[in-house]
Amino acid sequence: MADQVYIQDIAAYVGQEVTIKGWLYAKTGKGRLQFLRLRDGTGIIQGVAFEREIDAASFENAKALTQESAVMVTGMVRADERAPSGYELSLSKVEIVHLAQDYPITPKEHGVDFLMDNRHLWLRSAQQWAVLRVRATVIKAIRDWLDSNGFILMDTPILTPAACEGTTTLFETEYFGEKAYLSQSGQLYNEATAAAFGRVYCFGPTFRAEKSKTRRHLIEFWMVEPEMAYADLDECMRVEEELVSYVVGRTLEERAEELKVLERDTTRLQAVQPPFPRISYDDALKLVAAKGEPLPWGEDFGAPHETVIGDAHDRPVFVHRYPAACKAFYMEADPCDPRLSLSVDLIASEGYGEIIGGGQRTASLELLERRLVEHNLPREAFEWYLDLRRYGSVPHSGFGLGVERTVSWITDTHHIRETIPFPRTLGRMYP
Ligand code: 4AD
Ligand code: MG
After folding, report:
1. Would you give the DSSP letter of residue 323?
2. Centroid of ligand 1 to alpha carbon of 400 (angstroms)
3. Any atom of ligand 1 within 6 Å of the Cβ of 74
4. Digit-coded pLDDT (tens) for 53-106
5. Which one of 41, 138, 267, 302 is most buried, counting C-beta atoms within 10 A?
6. Which of 154, 223, 352 to mutate to test the pocket of ligand 1 (most atoms within 8 A of CB)?
7. Ligand nearest to the CA of 211
8. DSSP H or E stretch at residue 226
């Protein structure tokens, strides 16, 4: 077998004969000319089989190839401006590895349910391929930035004895006769590790039994959660905008081809530079009212409000100091107005809504004890967490960035289910 070359590296092989191992993405045949669109996981390239320039068996193979058949081809790489990828292969050999029959996803339009039933195959389509390649880069960029900015990775447990983000979305399971819950967030544990290591982060799957069927909610999603000792709300926002800008920059640099496949307007992404605008909850209320989406004071924003807030800015926008009553129990109170919390959400532009939630955590034992009661949370399960306020309590802050929400926004993918290989959504766990 000839050495395999990957389509993403093809530019380095112009004028040389290479072998590509992959699958047939699409084909147009015109008698003595067969145009094969080939994919190998790293990209798509057109191969041209011309009856006069290829052996008879290879030409018959080219004609016989069906969509998603596995194929190995050998050919000369030519730079060609008219070709979609800028390169083309003049084929000298076509070998069929496996002939696929009646591939269900055809070039015609399919309904979402059908595509989701065939998610294991749908992943091969150019659009899905592009989104998930961006996802991998987003995750790598997040880790690179945190690892090189003083954050230590701390893996937090998936099986937990208590709620972090409210009891209504808990996934319950059994733990040797005790109740356990799948983690909604690693935050509480990282408040402990932050007191041990300074700046930390966890990065893993999180679970929410969300009863709402929206384009922004998954049941299982991935979240990165940095946590910082001796950091206030302002520092939290500063870290968030640095991280998000870096991630967008790396995607623009490394995934230009994929963003082109997705027809992403990259000028919108180029604007994503610090500092991001910062508006208070009270000002955000005025903004949504002025845009025809009024909300009573005290309530958290829903999708229509977030869309209005995001669209009023050219880059993600911070909304800070929400009323304490609409946020989680661990939020620090605003010293200027105890009705408010030192919380902050980062709202993405273009209708993608909240991509980060976070803020400053309560440092006071007394306030935290009160909040547990107000939120009806079982104190026994939080004794260890209260200890963090008994022994060297300091101002500390952190946040959680949802990977799929972020990828939806960066790739301009309307529904979040396309930003994870095998989404878990309300009522669907197959495949
Ligand atoms: O705002 P959330 O619920 O915050 C927390 O969990 C904090 N404990 C994080 C922290 O401070 N360490 O969730 C954080 C982010 C949201 O902004 C969103 O991007 C994502 O997680 N998220 C979801 N993504 C997909 N599907 C869901 N059901 C999500 N719920 C939250
Ligand atoms: Mg939130």
Report:
1. B
2. 6
3. no
4. 999 999 999 999 999 999 999 999 999 988 878 999 999 999 999 999 999 999
5. 138
6. 223
7. 1
8. strand 220-229
1 pLDDT above the threshold of 70: no
**Residue range(s) occupied by CATH 3.30.930.10 in the chain:** 120-419
Give the ligand 1 atom nearest the CA of 405: 19
Residue 232: which of 360, 358, 356, 319 has the closest Cα?
A: 360
Write out the two tokens for 373. 């009661």
Residue ranges, comma separated, of all CATH 2.40.50.140 domains in the chain are 7-98
Q: What was the pLDDT predicted at 2? A: 59
Q: Which superfamily does CATH assign the domain made up of 120-419 to?
A: Bira Bifunctional Protein; Domain 2 (3.30.930.10)
Query: Own/partner pairs for 166-175, CB < 8 Å, 24+ apart?
Result: 166/328, 166/375, 167/376, 167/377, 168/209, 168/211, 169/208, 169/209, 169/210, 169/211, 170/209, 171/207, 171/208, 171/209
User: Tokens 């180029």 — which residue?
Assistant: 270
Report the nearest atom of ligand 1 relative to the CA of 355.
19
235 lines ligand 1 (CB under 6 A): no
pTM here?
0.97
Residues with CB under 5 A from ligand 2 (ion): 357
